[in-house]
Amino acid sequence: MDLYLIRHGAAGDRNNDHDDDLLRPLTRKGVRQAAALAESLSRLQPQLVLSSPYMRCVQTVEPLAQRVALEIDTHPALAEGAGADIIDLAYHLVNRPAPSRPVIVCSHGDVIPDLLDAIVRRDVVDLGPMPRCQKASIWRLKSEAGRFIEATYTPPPAV
């Protein structure tokens, strides 16, 4: 199974745009990034779309979920500040008996590196030189037999 790990699209300024960071939305650029991600990822026909409960993450995968007629499931392990909780979730996903269609996951720039570090340590996956995690970028994590075997980075869509 492939796990597609997306960092949310461009959002407003953390300190100036919103009192409650949980409700901080995507900017116009972030909305365009979400549409471009939906365009490229919808062909995968994912089995599941998971998101951090933060508005900017949900908004990033909404266009995709609509295109493939799936509900977005939010999960606290994907929330900003969740730390290593994403690791347990990711390994749970790749170890469950399910169809081989991909799972799409949207999270934050402080959470995604925790999972990437774990797959490097546990599964000895090469992330290439200088692993990145730009807004609206994608990490495709390929798994086999309950472990990750390959990671491929795709930069944000040009919008």
N-to-C SSE series?
Answer: EHEHEHEHEE
Rg calc: 15 Å
Give the oligomeric state. single chain
What strand order characterises the main sheet? 3-2-4-1-5-6
User: What's the total count of β strands?
Assistant: 6
The CATH architecture can be given as 3-Layer(aba) Sandwich
Q: Termini, distance in Å?
A: 29 Å
| Low-confidence residue ranges | none
Output the CATH topology.
Answer: Rossmann fold
CATH class: Alpha Beta
- Structure annotation, total helices: 4
Share of residues in helices: 25-40%
Total separate domains = 1
How does the helix and strand content classify structurally? Answer: alpha/beta
What does the overall shape look like? globular
Biggest sheet features:
6 strands, mixed
CATH homologous superfamily (4th level) name:
Phosphoglycerate mutase-like
Average pLDDT figure: 92
Q: Estimate the strand proportion.
A: 15-25%
Topology:
Layout: E1 2-7, H1 28-41, E2 48-51, H2 55-67, E3 72-74, H3 85-95, E4 103-107, H4 112-123, E5 138-144, E6 147-154
Parallel strand pairs: 1-4, 2-3, 2-4
Antiparallel strand pairs: 1-5, 5-6
Helix pairs in contact: 1-2
Structure description:
The chain is α/β, with parallel strands linked by helices and 159 residues long. The protein has a single domain (2-154), classed as Rossmann fold (3-Layer(aba) Sandwich), CATH 3.40.50.1240. The chain is built from 4 helices and 6 strands. The protein has helices spanning 28-41, 55-67, 85-95, 112-123, and strands at 2-7, 48-51, 72-74, 103-107, 138-144, 147-154. It has a 6-stranded mixed beta sheet, with helices on both faces. A hairpin with a 2-residue loop joins strand 5 (138-144) and strand 6. The longest helix has 14 residues, at 28-41.
